[in-house]
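Hey, I'm writing a tutorial for new members on how sequence and structure tokens pair up, and I'd like a real worked example in the thread rather than a made-up one. If someone can provide the structure for the chain below, I'll link this post from the tutorial.
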Amino acid sequence: MNYLSSVRSYLDYVEASIKRKFGKASSNAMKFKEYCSAAFDSSFSYRFLYRFRNYAQHCGLPVTRIYFSAKADENDSESSHRSLDVGIDRDELLNNSFDWGKLKQEIAKQPPIIDVNVHLEEMMARLKEIHTEYITDEFVTLRESASYLRDLLQNIANDYNELHLFKLTSHSDDSPASRATMKMQVVRLDLMNDVFDARFAILFEGQ
């Protein structure tokens, strides 16, 4: 339950963050939805576990097999490798009133006991792809912003490691009480320079 909820929380949080930053109809928001849709359309494991989260939340967890094992590490007597094997009842999923939609036909083709571990590995691979695409888009945006700031600083010689940005917002309502507010944001120059690090060059290929 924790894993399934964490996956959903991650996807919802990133989408909300992108929309707040760039706008609901922005290209960034549309691209993130495309990344998620591509993972959903191309992987049964992703589709199954994505919907299984709703099933588990509303109908329970039909777990019929739990096997925990531990194996000593040959290189370290103090540690061991642990694994958890989980299986769920296919027929119980299908006989429930939960609406699986088109996914029901795919679930019917699975073995009587569905090996969750296999699908977890596949879903993690798809989530990694989504996250990589999202981070690439973020770095492209960061590079544009960092380039602008670096251009502002190129003629300024200083030994400081922070840049203080001030934003002045006026509240003009033609009344004597109208005033302006000022917000300050601190930008660490070492982080700004990291955007141009050669290690990240591959992220910008084709961008």
